[in-house]
Design brief:
By secondary structure, the protein is α/β, with parallel strands linked by helices. It has 16 helices and nine strands.
Length: about 425
């Protein structure tokens, strides 16, 4: 049986570059060259959905894919993600002013977001071939990919799963699980940061609706890959260990809108993963001590110990973002600075929107270094003997030996390499 090992990645906008750095170092492990993709189950939301989908599309050559993914993040520019031109910003500003000033009288609701993220969809279409996901599932390089998004029409959290035949399905009162072919539209929906990026319209088996960031309603980011059968969970967060950005407590001021948005995004993107890992470790301890029975109650799901490994940034990414704010296009700087009093008050918010090469390269370097410092621990976690007896829920993942060119391969400005 193949390892029932899951990878979980949450959101964080530009902070997703840190995840790419961690993955790049993992891709350099020697055993990756012979064993291939170590994560048969991949779950992601927001920026984690982008990285997770890239890994799923290139699961046939994990090492090459992680290098190409880091290259993509390192060369990313703000114009690849959202529109920065004068006309777009002016039109957007006028729409907001009109809605806030005259919307109640003349009809409002025309403003959809602070920024126009339509370039991101074009960028992902140019650099990511989602058709390769099913190819990798069929060839046994991948068991399942799950990405989450929030349905703005119903308020429910949707989980889109593309996996091997017979993979688990489940529904809860505020969660909907759909088996579907994942496309760039699903990925953009999962990555649509609320208020900042516009919602994405998706057609689903439940009907057509508008979707936004998957982290908005996904309070248990480990849940999808656990339910898909993962026995071990490798999670990559984007919050600095014990380093939470704070303003000067000796000089309290009314919080600016930028500060409030920064705190909201921190709660949405950063808190849930660490809390979920802590909860999982507590359950493991209770199971080990016999306070909870693994057999469970009649009619309830069987509980089993699950081993997590979480890696987080070793630095405060908000402080790092404050050092790079001037790299943003002037109009975007002007707009964001208008929401705050100074660079410090905007740093949390800016850390999610700073899609500039200098910032993302530094994040990649930090992620690479953090993974390198723990590489022995990570390798032991990936390949320890207790993985070998783990089973997937419906069928074992195939052990196909054919290797194709990765769907993300470095070949000049266009990183997509077709499979001849």
């Amino acid at each position: 049986m193949e390892n029932a090992l899951g990878l979980a990645m949450t959101g964080g906008g530009a902070r997703g570059a840190y995840q790419a750095g961690v993955l790049k170092r993992i891709g350099e492990i020697e055993r990756i060259q012979t064993h291939g993709n170590p994560f048969p189950i991949i779950g992601g939301s927001s920026a984690g959905a982008i990285n997770g989908s890239a890994l799923a599309a290139g699961a046939d050559d994990f090492a090459l894919t992680t290098k190409a993914l880091a290259h993509l993040w390192a060369s990313l520019r703000p114009t690849d993600v959202f529109r920065c031109d004068v006309l777009s910003q002016a039109r957007n500003s006028i729409t907001w002013i009109f809605d806030l000033s005259f919307g109640a009288v003349l009809g409002g609701g025309n403003a959809r977001s602070f920024l126009d993220a339509s370039p991101l969809q074009r960028y992902l279409r140019n650099h990511l071939n989602c058709d390769h996901i099913q190819d990798n599932i069929r060839r046994g390089h991948l068991y399942a990919l799950a990405i989450s998004a929030t349905n703005y029409n119903s308020g429910k959290s949707y989980l889109f799963i593309q996996g091997a035949k017979g993979h688990p399905m489940w529904n809860r009162s505020r969660r909907v699980t759909l088996a579907t072919k994942i496309t760039v539209d699903h990925i953009c929906a999962s990555a649509a940061i609320p208020l900042v990026f516009q919602p994405v319209r998706l057609k689903t088996a439940k009907g057509t609706a508008f979707f936004g960031d998957g982290c908005l309603r996904l309070q248990q980011p480990l849940s999808p890959i656990i339910r898909l059968g993962a026995r071990k969970i490798f999670a990559i967060g984007v919050r600095g260990e014990n380093k939470e950005h704070q303003t000067d407590p000796t000089d309290p001021k009314d919080p600016s809108l930028a500060q409030v948005m920064g705190v909201l995004f921190n709660v949405m993107f950063l808190d849930h993963l660490a809390t979920d890992v802590e909860h999982l470790e507590r359950l493991n301890q209770l199971l080990k001590e016999g306070h909870i029975s693994q057999t469970g109650l009649e009619g309830c799901e069987k509980m089993r110990p699950l081993l997590p490994l979480l890696i987080n940034p070793s630095v405060d990414l908000s402080e790092l973002a404050a050092q790079h704010q001037r790299d943003m296009p002037y109009l975007i700087q002007y707009f964001i600075n208008g929401l705050g009093r100074d660079a410090a008050s905007c740093s949390d918010l800016m850390s999610y929107l700073l899609f500039t090469p200098k910032y993302t390269k530094e994040l990649i370097d930090i992620g690479y270094r953090d993974a390198n410092n723990r590489i022995d621990e990570i390798e032991d976690f990936l390949y320890s003997s207790d993985n070998q007896d783990a089973e997937l829920p419906s069928r074992p993942i195939g052990t196909g030996k054919s290797r194709q060119a990765s769907s993300l391969a470095k070949s000049g400005p266009n990183l997509v390499k077709s499979r001849g």
